[in-house]
């Protein structure tokens, strides 16, 4: 009887440990998917870049889209001139946490 009870307890503990391990691995980042902390950091970076665009008269914030993945900011949309595109890149690079900027904007 005592052996069966110990076996049941060990089995339950193993199942709980396995479930915890699976849930922890499920939240871990991969090369193509962010972890929870990275997602929050990237959201903050995106917000700060958009705020910098809104405060600058050279960049039309409503025409340039900003996406961030693992610290890399991607700019897309339309700009009026090469200077506007360069200014957008400068502003994005100036935000804390930005590792690199990919500029996919199009001059109209």
Keywords:
single chain; alpha+beta; Histidine-containing Protein, Chain: A; three-stranded mixed β-sheet; 108 residues; 3 helices
Overview of the structural elements:
It is a single chain. The chain has a domain at 36-107: Histidine-containing Protein, Chain: A, CATH 3.30.1340.30. The radius of gyration is 23 Å and the shape is rod-shaped. It is α+β, with helices and mostly antiparallel strands and 108 residues long. The model has no long low-confidence stretch (mean pLDDT 84). It is built from three helices and three strands; from the N terminus they run H-H-E-E-H-E. Helices cover 53% and strands 20% of the residues. Helix 3 (82-93) links the parallel strand 2 and strand 3 (100-107). The chain has a three-stranded mixed β-sheet.
Can you summarize this structure?
The chain is an alpha+beta fold. It is built from 3 helices and 3 strands; from the N terminus they run ααββαβ.
Topology as a string of helices (H) and strands (E): HHEEHE
Looking at the structure, the CATH topology of the domain at 36-107 is Histidine-containing Protein, Chain: A
Q: Judging from the principal axes of the Cα atoms, what is the shape?
A: rod-shaped
Major β-sheet annotation: 3 strands, mixed
Poorly predicted residue ranges: none
Question: Helix count, per DSSP?
Answer: 3
The CATH class of the domain at 36-107 is identified as Alpha Beta
How much strand? 15-25%
Total strands = 3
Distance between the termini: 81 Å
Assembly category: single chain
- Radius of gyration over C-alpha positions, nearest whole angstrom: 23 Å
Strand order of the largest sheet: 1-2-3
How much helicity do the residues have? 40-55%
What structural category do the secondary elements indicate?
A: alpha+beta
């Amino acid at each position: 009887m005592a052996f069966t009870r110990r076996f049941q307890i060990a089995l339950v503990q193993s199942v709980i440990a396995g479930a915890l391990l699976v849930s922890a691995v499920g939240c871990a980042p991969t090369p193509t998917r962010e972890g929870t902390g990275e997602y929050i950091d990237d959201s903050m970076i995106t917000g700060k870049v958009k705020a910098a665009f809104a405060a600058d008269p050279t960049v039309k914030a409503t025409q340039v889209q900003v996406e961030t993945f693992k610290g890399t900011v991607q700019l897309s949309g339309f700009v009026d001139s090469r200077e506007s595109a360069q200014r957008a890149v400068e502003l994005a690079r100036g935000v804390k946490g930005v590792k690199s900027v990919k500029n996919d904007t199009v001059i109209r």
